[in-house]
Amino acid sequence: MKWIDTYEIVDSLIDKHPEVDPKKILFTDLRNLISNLEGFDDEFDKCNERILEAIQALWIEEED
Asked: Which of 6, 42, 60, 64 could form a disulfide with 2 if both were Cys (CB 3.0 to 4.6 A apart)?
């Protein structure tokens, strides 16, 4: 799984962290949660705010 795999990342976050409110998570915490997901194997430096915003927006959408 890479940073651009937003749907797969969000599905994994929903499964692994149902207690997390995606509307309140800090980007630093979100980046750490993603980088620790099983199957995630992209470089930490390739992540940027735009990617995290897209993941967070999709996660919020999926939760609603």
From this structure: 42
